[in-house]
Structures are given as structure tokens and as C-alpha cells.
Amino acid sequence: MKRLESIDDLEKLRKAIIEKNKAYIKTVALCGGTGCRAYGSESLKNAFEQALKEHNLSDKVRLVFSGCHGFCEQGPIMIIRPEGIFYSKVTEDHIDLIITETLIKGNIIDSLLYEDPTTGEKIVYEKDIPFYKAQNRIVFGQNGSIDPTNIEDYIAIGGYSALCKVLNGMDPTEIINEIKESGLRGRGGGGFPTWQKWESCRNANGNLKYLVCNCDEGDPGAYMDRSLLEGNPHLVLEGMLIGAYTIGSQEGYIYVRHEYPWAWANAGIAINQAREMGLLGENILGTGFSFDIDIARGGGAFVCGESTALVASLEGRMGEPRDKQHLHTVESGLWEKPTNLNNVETWANVPIIINNGAEWYSKIGTEGSKGTKIFSLVGKVKNTGLVEVPMGISLREIVYDIGGGTPNGTKIKAIQTGGPSGGCIPSSMLDIPVDFDELTKVGSMMGSGGMIVMDEKTCMVDVARYFVKFLKDESCGKCLPCREGLKRMDEILTDIIEGNGSEEQIELLHELALVMKDASLCGLGKTAPNSVLSTLQYFRDEYEAHVIDKKCPAGVCKDLITYSINADACTGCGACKRNCPYEAIEGERRKPHVIILDLCQKCGSCMDVCKFNAVVIS
Amino acid sequence: MEFSMVDAIVDQHGRKPWALISILQDIQEHDGYLSPEVLRRVSERMEIPLTGLYGVATFYKTLKLVPQGKHQITVCSGTACHVRGSNRILDEIKNLLKVEPGETTEDRQFTLNVVNCLGACAIGPVVVIDGKYHGKMSASKVKDLLANFRS
Amino acid sequence: MNSRTEVKTIPVEIDGFQMKVDKGSTILESAHNCGIHIPTMCYLEGLSPYGGCRICSVEVSTDGGKTFRVSASCTYEIHRPIVVKTDTPKIRRIRKMLAELLVASAPNVKLAQDIAARFGINKVRFKIEDNRCILCGLCVRMCHEQMGGKALAFAGRGPEKRVSAPFAIRSEICLNCGGCDSICPGKIIPCQGIKIPGELCGKCIRPDDMPFCCPTGTFGCFCENNPLEIVSQPR
After folding, report:
1. Minimal Cβ distance to B123: which of A38, A253, A314
2. What is the number of domains present in chain C?
3. A374 touches chain B (CB under 8 A)
4. A–C interface: beta-carbon pairs under 8 A
5. Which residue is closest to A480 within chain C, CA to CA?
6. Within this chain, do residues A128 and A181 fall inside the same structural domain, yes or no?
7. B116 touches chain A (CB under 8 A)
8. Tens digits of per-residue pLDDT, A92-144?
9. Does the CB of C54 have a partner CB in chain A at under 8 Å?
10. Inter-chain contact B51–C156, Cβ cutoff 8 Å?
11. Quick check: C97 and A515 CB within 8 A?
12. Where would a tag sit more exposed on chain A, N or C end, judged by fewer CB atoms within 10 A?
């Protein structure tokens, strides 16, 4: 790869790549995101490459192993351009057919098309799919067109032009102003105005300043940052370069959690390629600006998503947050030097803003929350995946128009946002707009973007305990309210779930939650009680059912439910009996089967295999 | 593990403090865990007090200080998987292998881990065995899956 | 000495009292200097503040008293004018709950009992454990800061957090100075027998006839005349 010595060189290269790509008649983008990989898309890619060779199409058809497309429920995903034909659930068996029918003859293969579950209609083009239609994929959309391990792909779609614009004559105050006008707020959960952070860091004392990209995405159920860093690392690098130039930093770190191997691998490849080309390192594009980035791996600690804990981890220490209320990381962070820490998605928005302008960006979203947000829509929803929506869209639109509602037609009970630090929003409030302040008003928060759909078969007390247990193990353990508080909350919730709870304990839970909120040392402890507080606020009846009636209305808590077989629905097929790991089901062929309660461990295997819905929970 | 290999890994990362976790993880790849001797060597080579290094090694979940089983089973307990019943799968594995998360079976065949979200939520509940992802798992499928690995 | 040397002082209001404090001094130090008492647990003058117990929590305002946030006073360094309240209903609720949590975890540690008694706790609504270490970290700070050893540190995380020598084996660099033992608020009597290597609070052999609480009846202890009522349900 030739080193670029000037902005001009980059533009020349860009034109050359675009010209080179014109030789291809078709581009096939096959999703290489972690979700699709889990479906086998890597071996699919290899087989496709081989097949293209055999058909002598390798120089006519460009195969791109792209970043995550977001529609993970339908993977492996393949998009054929320029038409934009969308094929889902592609397997190796389909390869020859795709090549001969679609690539060569131009025919659509019906069986590979996405079928809208509501209308039954088969949809051909990506742009017509409801999942994508309601989205505004200004940041995430690029993923589907590029191979993240090939910097040329990024350059071809206009990559690094924001950096050029900046280096070509924007001074730092101008850049900060642009970010200010855009209204960009931190996408990691804090929602802090990005321009303010940059300005404080820029104005802080000292010449040695650090930049950090937080990819320690620990919220369970959230994987936006992973898909961004893994699927389009150069977008993040470009954002950091612009940030570094503005703040006056020469050293940056990307902190990636350990559980994301392809994210740190692809980020590493991107950094190496950028260095080779002279887009990172000394004297970038001959402008005298120098900045380099190293990747640090996390060790499996959710608390390291907290800025001061992350800094401690980078310093080679335990990830314990710092208790210095008056001292901000922007003034004294990594090795006590001014440090600007932003989330992956925040960095990714920066080139988009610089390229398109603050005015354009600020037209998207609400008064207090500009731009878009990427959410991971998961749980009891038909279309699970990553969605990018303009701020201000309602939860209802996201869950129904994009998500398609619940898979089995069950009623939605609540939407959980903000991860373990967030809260549960009941279905009666589905019309609230997605907005930093609106979500906080109802007792939840935007968080990093996890959005978990829960239906009537989800027990809210169980959900509260799930999050408390998670945080209990992830707590750094330094401060008493968090460490002891979470331990006791877990004990009380367990008692309630096992049928040993009392009303006094519900009051105690509430009292404890309020103290933890105020007295804990860091954000983890302070927001730890949110799941309890929000479920108590909106679903108190479930708590009361558990302690007064000793029942679990959702049919989840093992000690409070019984499995039984409805004799009228049972056909005596014996599937449940064969699959029961505890030999707890009796019955003869063609006669209704019966569950022996003493042996039943409530594992749910029988319910999983019964085709006649004969297994019931009471 | 030979000390020369430990030294090589430490030097390869430039002895940088921000690379400490990566260094320990790379060293751990070798034997599956970090022995006291190896940690002492790292402490000397990187000039970090052993107490601090021990604190780091016990703080991060991915760092193991006891020998691991032949097969690593990881059950994803992320919220999305939880809502889809990952608890039942975990209970089933606990019953079958008679171990708690973090423990290794007596015959040293399996180590059971729980992780908070692998980011493959669409195919949840997910169980990873030796790096291979198994999606849409259920309590009933788990027994067969484990049987494949019994050697 | 330059007579023009400026000593930086900051105007601060604590509990209605106006005062000027040295820049960089903590709220706790400033309060104590004026005779305003703020209770503490993991703090000891002479050792660096840790901020772990949060019992020294106070309400702090940086906007002249309009809005307040709760902070630990031992670690809050004063760099600009603030208004502090050390004894509001919120702070009392916080201290009471922290004391209850503490004594539920370590009822046999004298300091825990003292703190609980001072805050008027006579009921414990949580399941009683019997931890002898309250994770105050005084031993670690004593070892590192006063004795110049580095034989002890915190290990583990969350509920597994503990004070330990590496690999739970007494470190070769341990100076055997006994500083950790002497500073430990658990007031464990060093056992007269063989010390179990590397282990501190709680594992030493405790004589059976040692009473539940301090035998001298010092203020605040629980004893036969003032027993600790346990209202949580047994496991």
C-alpha cells in the first residue's frame, strides 16, 4: 500500500479506486458480522469465492464480506447491487443458484426473498423492507457496503474526506462550534454534550493529552458498538483523528472488551492499514499533524465501561472507579493528564457531522436530542437486530413498525432500555419519544442503546433480580452501599421469587434502593437500583402477587409455578416423555400424558417440544 | 510454561501498562491458566509489585488462576438470552455436569462459564463450546450437544 | 520567605458556618478543623482517604446552595466555593442504612457495633453473616503508606472482594511489623498459636470464651443488657 503524502494524493487514490470498481458489473455484499458468522457466513463467503472462480466471474463480480447489516434475525444476509436485491437466510446450497439465476440471468430467486410476516408479501429490494424503511441509517448504513478489513472500500465511499476537510483549513474552535451546533450528545449512556467535553479538554493545562474510545460495551443485549467497530472501524478512526486534531492530542487508545474478538481484530487491521497509508502516525497527509492509536483489551469487567474505571484499567490497575467528584477526566484522566473519552458511536457520528454539516444534522431528532441513535432491538420481538432511528421516534414505532411486534402474538408488557442501569417502561407508555430527557423522566434512560422487548411471559421481579445479580458480580466492590446493597437486594429478590418474601421486604428493597442511589461512589452503584425502582413503580402488583398470593403471574418463577399437561390438547405423541431429562412424564401412546410433580424440575423441555401447546404453566 | 516465552510475550507488547490485560491473556492461551510462577515472572519483567498484579489477575473474569477443563462451555446470560430462557439451559448444564459457573468437572473435561452477552442476540439463547457458537439452544438440546464432546 | 506568597484559601460554608479553608483540603478535614463532627469508618488521619464506606457522606452544593449532591467528605478536595450540609434527614437515612448493612455483615466487629449503636440501629432486617473483615482497607494503606511494605492488597471483585497477600500465601516481602494487625478495627486478638500464613481478619483462632462484644462495656457496645435484635428470617 503506497503512503499518501498529501490530501491531493488521497483524492487521486479515491478516484482511482472508484474507477477500478467500475470494471465490476455487480457487487455482492455478504454480511460478516458476528451474528451472521455464527450462522456460518464465513464458510459461505469462502464457498462463494470459489464458485465465482469456477464460473469465471471473479473479475466481473465483486464479493464484499461486509460489516453487520443489522437485520440479524434474517442472517446470513446477501445484498446484490446495484439493484439492491435482498436475500436472507442464504446457505451454501444456494450459491450456484444465485450465481446462475440472479448474477448471470438477472432473475430473482423467490425462496430467498424476505417475507413480511404481517402481509405475507415477498419483498425484493432492501429499501422496501419495513425493517429498514423506518430507519435513518446515516451512521450504520455504511457497514453494508464495505469490507472492514479493506481500507480502499472505505475510501471509495468517501472515507477520510471529513478529515481532509478539517486538515484543509478548519481550526479547532470552528470544529468545536460545528459539533456544538449539531447538538451531538454522548452515545455511551451519559448523553453529555460532546462539544463541551472537547472544549474542556482542549482548554485543560498541559501539552500531553489523551484520547480514548470506549468500546467496553457491557450492557447485556447491546451490541451496537461491537458492530460499528467490527463493521466499519475506519469511521471510528476518522472520528478520533478529527477529535485529536481539535483537542491537541497525539495519542489515543481504543478500549475493546475481551468478548469481541473480531472487533479488536478488525480495528487492529484498520489501524495498520491507516498507518501504512499515512493516515495515522507521524505527519498525517503531509500536514504536520501526528496522531497514533493503540488497542487495549478489556479483561471481562463491566465496570470498566465507567470512564474512571476504564482509565484505571488502561493504567494497568484494577478497574476501580475514582472518587474525585471535583476532578473530571478531561482535566485529569489517564496518568493524570487531560483525557477525552467518548463512546464508539459518538466518535462514529463525528465524520458524518463534519461532512454533511451541523445544520443538516441538527434537523434530525428533537430539541434536546439531535441526530440518530443505534439501538439493539432484542428479546421478544420478531425482527431482532440493530436499528438506527432518528431521535424523537416513538417506542411504539420501533417495536411494531421496525420490530414487527412479538413473535407469538403475545402482548408486550414492557420495554427495557439503558441496560442494567436503566429501567422498564410499561407498554402503556409506548408512545413516548426516544429522547435523552424523556426517557430519564419516566425512570429509565437512553443508555448505550440496548432495547429489550418483554412480553406477558416475562416476570418483572425476575427481570429486576437478573439485573441486580448481574451488577452484584460486576461491582468493583470498593464501596459499601453498592457491594453490600446489591448483595442484600439479590437476597431479598431471591426470597420473593422463591415464595419466601414479605411486604416488609418490598419496603426494605425500596429504602435500600434510595440509599444506594445517593451514597454509592460511582455511576454503576448509583444507577444499580434503577431496575428495582422502575419495576416497583410500574409493576408493583407483580411483587405483591409473589409475596401475598405466592404466585408468579407471568409463569416464570419456578417455585411458584407448576407444569401440567392439558389432557384435552394432548395427543399422546410421547415427545415430551422422550425429551424429559428427569423421566418425570408418564403416559401410553395416544393417551394423554401426565407430569409427575415430585420429579418435575421445571426445565421446560416438554413445553419446547410439544407441537400441540398441551403443556401449561399454572 | 517456559519463562522465555513469558518474557517474549511481555516484550512483544512493549511492557506497556495498558497492554497488561492483553499480555496476561496471551500468556494464558498457552496453559489455559496463569500459574503463580508465571505471574511472578510477569511481575519481575514488568516491574509491577506482585500484590498489584495479583489484584489485577483476580479482578478480571477472563483471567484464570486455576487449571481449566479440556472443553470450555460458555452460556450467554445476556438479557436477550435470559428473556428467551437461558437460565433453564444453565440449570440443565449444571445438573448434567454437577458444577457451578466458574468450576471445572472432576474429570477435567468441562469448565462452565457464564458470560454477559456475546452480541449474538438474534440467535439466542447461545451456548459457545470451544469457540463455536450454538444458537437457538434449549434445555432439551443441551444433553445431546454435550454428549458429542464426551471423549 | 516571600511575603507575597499567596496561600490559597477558599470560602466554604459548612452547616451554616462560613469559613476559609486551604485549597485542596478535604471537606472532612475542614469540618474537623472547626469542630464539626462527621462520622467515619474507613478513614484514619495519617493514612490517605479511601472513600469506601461512604459513612462520611455529606450533601454538597457547587451552585451556592440551589442544588445538592451526596458525596463522601473524606475524598472531596475543595477547589472552589461550596456549601456543605453534614446532618440532613437524607444523610441520616443514608448513614442508618449503611450502618445496618455493615452490622448485618460483621456483627462481631466492634467498630461495626459502635457505628450501628451510634446511629440508633437496634434492628437488623438483613440475614446476619459473620464476616470479620469489613473491607475498610486500613491494613492495606498502613502496609503501603506507613510501613513501606507491599505485602497486602485488595483482590477479587464485588462480593468476592477481600484483602489478601498474593496467592493467599504470606508474601516474602512482608516485614512482619504487625502494622496491619494493630490498625485493624476488627480488633482481632492475634492468636497465641501458629498464625495461618497470609490470612488476616477472621481466620485467626478466636478463643471460645471471648464474649460477643467488648467486655469493658465501652459506649455503644451491644451486650446482654442491650442485645442486638435480629428480625430477618433465618435461612
Report:
1. A38
2. 2
3. no
4. 107
5. C53
6. no
7. yes
8. 999 999 999 999 999 999 999 999 887 889 999 999 998 998 899 999 999 99
9. yes
10. no
11. yes
12. C
* CB of A420 closer than 8 Å to CB of A528: yes
Model confidence, pTM: 0.89
Does A470 sit within 8 Å of B116, measured CB to CB?
A: yes
Which chain B residues contact residue C151 at CB under 8 A? 51
C-alpha cell at C77: 478536595
Nearest Cα neighbor of A436 from A428, A447, A425, A426 is A447
Write the single-letter amino acid at C181: D
B35 and B103 share one domain: no
Is C66 among the domain residues? yes
In this structure, the number of other CB atoms found within 10 A of the CB of residue A275 comes to 17
Distance CA A186, CA A298 (A): 21
d(Cα A475, Cα C176) in Å, to the nearest integer?
32
The pLDDT of B55-75, averaged and rounded, is 92
Chain segment A53-93, per-residue pLDDT in tens: 999 999 999 999 999 998 988 889 999 999 999 999 999 99
Same domain, B80 and B50: no
Backbone angles phi, psi at A494, to 5 degrees: -65, -45
Report the number of distinct structural domains present in chain B.
Answer: 2
Is residue A317 within 8 A of residue A309, CB to CB? The reply is no
**Which of A316, A378, A463 is nearest residue B121 as measured by Cβ atoms?**
A378
Which chain B residues are within 8 Å of C174, Cβ to Cβ? none
What ipTM is given for this predicted complex? 0.88
Is C20 among the domain residues? yes
* Residue A433: burial class (beta carbons within 10 Å; 0-12, 13-18, 19+): middle
Give the separation between CA A553 and CA A294, rounded to whole angstroms.
Answer: 51
Check if A477 contacts C (Cβ < 8 Å). yes
For strands A26-31 and A78-81, give the pairing: antiparallel
Average pLDDT, consecutive stretches of 10 residues, N- to C-terminus, chain C (235 residues): 65 95 95 93 94 96 95 94 96 96 84 82 83 89 90 91 83 79 64 32 32 30 41 38
Question: CB contact, 8 Å: A340 with chain C?
Answer: no
